[in-house]
Amino acid sequence: MEAFLAQNVDGYYLRIMIFIGINIILALGLNLITGVTGQLSMGHAGFMSLGAYTSAILSVHFGTPFFLAIIAGALLAALFGFLIGIPTLRLDGDYLAMVTIGFAEIIRVFFLNFEPGGKAVGFSGIPQETTFTTVWIIVIVVIILNTKLFNSRVGRSLFAIRENEIAAEACGINTTRMKVLAFTVGSLLGGLGGGLYAHYMYYINPQDFGFMKSIEILNMVVLGGMGSIPGTIIGVIILTLAPEVLRVVAEYRLLVYGALLVILMIFRPNGLLGDVRIYDLKKRWGKKEVKI
Amino acid sequence: MFWEQLINGLTLGSTYALIALGYTMVYGIVQLINFAHGEIYMFGAFVGLFLVMAGMNIFIALLGAMIFCMLLGMLVERVAYRPLRGKSSRLSALISAIGVSIFLSTLMALYRGTNTTRYPEVLGSTTYNLGSIQISSLQIIILVVSGLLMVGLQVMIQKTRLGKAMRACSQDLEASSLMGINVNRVISATFAIGSALAAAGGLMVGIYYNAVWPYMGTMAGMKAFAAAVLGGIGSVPGAMIGGLCLGVMEIMGVAYLSSSYKDAIAFAILILVLFIRPQGLMGQKTSKKV
Questions:
Q1: CB A258 within 8 A of CB B103
Q2: Positive or negative, the Cα torsion across A240, A203, A34, A132?
Q3: B261: burial class by Cβ within 10 Å (0-12, 13-18, 19+)?
Q4: For residue B114, which phi and psi values (nearest 5 degrees)?
Q5: Backbone φ and ψ of A43, nearest 5°
Q6: I need a labelling partner for B3 at 20 to 30 A (CA). Which of A163, A165, B248, B273 fits?
Q7: 3-class SS string, B148-169
Q8: Would the pLDDT of A280 be above 60?
């Protein structure tokens, strides 16, 4: 498979496809926390870096096999997700956003000073084990498991928490457990994506996982349509391709990217595939609602 | 040693407080984390720099930067936030704010390059000795100017008609509009005032650290948001106290713990405080209603 791809597909496109796959895993993780459960997390890159560094150190220093290393990284990220999930019981909305930002920053500064991780120089010499096939097999498995989760009792509970936490609790949903669960599974996927990223790039640096990375993943989830799996995938594809397509405008790339985010949000405030239903379309044309 | 560090911390903290005020005021009224606020601060620093380079007096430059950012803040609100208001979730407004933030910092990077620009020598820095404590004239100016701005803001909010309208809007936007308050104008004014304060902060940080660069807004914006949350987001005195606390904690952390963990210390303390007081230092506990 790999040899066939390497011969027939341009390396540049293969690389983009692999990035799309990794980003889908990351974004689906965040989608579970923010899109489905409605808990604003702005530190997803922190979980990603935990997965990346753990797996990279395991493979380089301890010779752990690729899959074991990646799973270990994902599990460690999940453990931290669990720990971060606990304060969500007490904090809501933007206070939680601040805690997740702070957490990701602490992780970044920690790795900047972490001797085995190469400190600020970064960590290089990671074996390139992530291939197109492995990434996309994992992506498909993650999508299937996510769909199963969404349609289960647990998934419906998570959506209920997003819509109205108090009402959900009144319906007998253990909101505490569900929120921590969403955080744990979401960060597991973050760590998994991080591990795959590290084993594709040879080299990782704490700055790769800064605030802007978290924001980038959040953009993908919100742009595509919160809580929707196809929406998230489309968001990922658009925002991964955008910087490549925008290479035409060279140094104005980020300028256009920023403007694009604003324009898209003005014209599609609920994301590209966020509640697209015939009923809504009818309502939208039917009457103009006046709200403040 | 301790007292000097305290003064350093208060100087840094008062600039954080100036930026945090913009966050907290906007949040109090429209519940939006204005992520472009850090970039407004950066623009304030740069516009001040241009005016100083054009040979203007530092205080006139300060005024010029504040007026420029006032207009910029109102423009951003008009273009990127108002079309979204009321018809979308708060998260889409947040993404729009992030878009503005990327746009503005790239704009400045294209214009000035990504390198650090040094401020020209605008204020001779005399150092005064108060007993065993050293304090520079620059620090005195920063403390006095930010103190005056904060007092001015507080008077404005408590005594004027606009301030009253702002307080009303922060309680209930819809009811305020029914009482005949032009809500859009109040929101616009809130953005203008917050941006002007951020511009003052930017200019003073630029002079204090003798450096401005197009991406200076990201970290400062994050710290200021942390300060606003620490004080209890939505509360104006909270943002002032939160900013001062954060500045002092950061400087003390660097002085007595470790400088390589500078950026982590502030956040770690913030998280600890939020564990104990989830609503921030001055925030009011609101009960959730169905």
A1: yes
A2: positive
A3: middle
A4: -90, 0
A5: -135, 35
A6: B273
A7: HHHHHHHHHHHHCHHHHHHHHH
A8: no
Read off the tokens for B133. Answer: 């404590």
Residue A234 has pLDDT above 70, yes or no: yes
Task: Report which secondary-structure segment, H or E, holds A2.
Answer: helix A2-8
Q: What is the DSSP letter of A123?
A: B
pTM to 2 decimals?
0.82
Check if the beta carbon of residue A252 is closer than 8 Å to that of residue A206: no
Contact residues, chain B, for A222 at CB < 8 Å: 91-92, 94-95
Do residues A154 and A39 lie in contact, with contact meaning Cβ atoms separated by under 8 Å?
Answer: no
Q: Name residue, tokens 């498991």.
A: A145
Max mean pLDDT range (A100-104, B70-74, B270-274): B70-74
Nearest chain B alpha carbon to A275: B88
Are the Cβ atoms of A98 and B87 closer than 8 angstroms? no
SS (H, E, C) A33-82: HHHHCCCCCCCHHHHHHHHHHHHHHHHHHHCCCHHHHHHHHHHHHHHHHH
Q: Is A211 on the interface with B (CB under 8 A)?
A: yes
What CA–CA distance (Å, rounded) separates A101 from B219? 11
Please state, in angstroms and rounded to a whole number, the distance separating the CA atoms of residues B142 and B190: 23
Chain B residues with CB-CB distance to A262 below 8 A: 79-80, 96, 99-100, 103
